[in-house]
Amino acid sequence: MLVLVVACSQPPLPGQGELAEVHPPQDLQTLDLAVREQLDELWQHLQAIPYEAGNRAELAGAWGALGQWCHVYKYDQSAVTCYENARLLDPTEPRWPYYLGLLAEDGSDLERAAEMYGVAAALAPDEVAPRVRLGDLALLQQDVERASAVYSEILDSHPEDPGALYGIGQVRLMEGNAQAALEPLEALAQSQPKAVQVRYALALAWRQLGDEQHAADQLGRVPSDNFLQVPLTLDDPWEAELQACDRGGRTLCRRGVAASRRGHAVQAAELFGRAVRADPVGAEKRLNYGISLREIGRWQESAEQLEEAVRLAGEGSEMQVRAETQLGLLRIDQGRPRDAVLHLETALAIDPGDVAAHLALGRILHRRGRLDEALAHYGAVRDIDRAYPETRFWYSAVLIVLGRRAEAFEALHEDLRILDDDVKLRLLLIRLLSTAEEAAVRDLARARQLLDGEDLPHDVMFGETAAMVAAGEGRFDKAVAWQRVAVTALVGQRPREAEHRARRRLVLYQQGSPCRQCWEDRETPLDALVSAP
Fold it and tell me: Is the pTM of this model over 0.70?
């Protein structure tokens, strides 16, 4: 294994100074095996290159690669030394000063960072990354004029560069010219709709323009959970090359999570797979890899990873709960509901408060017609976590199907106090008010008020709800008109059962009979748009 890493002891190459020494990290044995093997490979490669004048570029590349290893795994001073050795051997390569700039900026030495980015930009005038970094530094130092000049020059030749677009947007905001900031920021929002910095910047621009509604709309697109927030992706091949050196399980997992949050499922699976190879006994890495494989449809490999995660997790652990739940979800994907139930019940036996397992079990049992059991799981989620409006809908819908309309009435009122803008919950309440036989529940006047008092989207669910209200009021011509537009929207759509159900309701209204069952078993909310009759 690795011995002390030092610069070659031969005399300096002609025209070069003595190379500096670099020592291995003191915590080397705590690193993942793959990371230690990687360091050994880099060192052996460096040792194998003859220390001769004709090998300067190759030697520089080997020192630079060793610097990248130190840089990625946060041995910053050793990384600086390696990059300086590489620069000494090959002063024409722009990557080494660029990486030195990154390290200097991380260390808050902005003057040194600007110097190194400037060197890299001069050596690679067609490369955008160092120039964007120079603009960012100027902006950080409140030199708005300089930052504007840098970003504008980049955009002249690279009009879609995300770093320059975001930077010029920031410049315009700092100048108080919010109107001019909108164009580059909205272009970025089109290409990277999940990037939270862009949403925040657009919200600020709209606020500066006095449009609080647009500002609120932008902020509403930012996930409240920091874990789900996605940063801006920059066009930086040198940064990408640096990160490609990473074989560390923890860092690869962090990057895999970031890729997954961006919706890059294949990239996430590749990163999680590398994390597993770096740390084969890490249960969480196996779990993440299994989840990512499931997302890209590699179900058999996913099962292998999740089963190994269960084995490594330890009996009764939180990690076992997560792995069992994910195995349950995978079995649902594979069309194996019985196996899914076993895994999900195992998870709940360990942790009765696991929301994901309750949700999945509720859905399985619901589809299999075991409504009382499904209701118990939906109710558990409803009691544990307020973040699942869809489950609250199904809780009340199942109560209605079971004939427990008074309970559904109370549940809907309680849930709408929390989620007053949830359209599906509101429509379900309107249906219940207009069709229930119980005097304590039925309230046609309120149903009409709720239906007319909100600007609700005119979809199939709305159309059928409007028909129920009209029929309850005895206005069967209006009920027939609304029901017909719903039927028309459903013709040829799947599931065909939805069209058949809508036609049965249409016949009721044509015969002058109101609807008495506002929600049926196996009915689902349908959002195909309809036109008002």
Answer: no
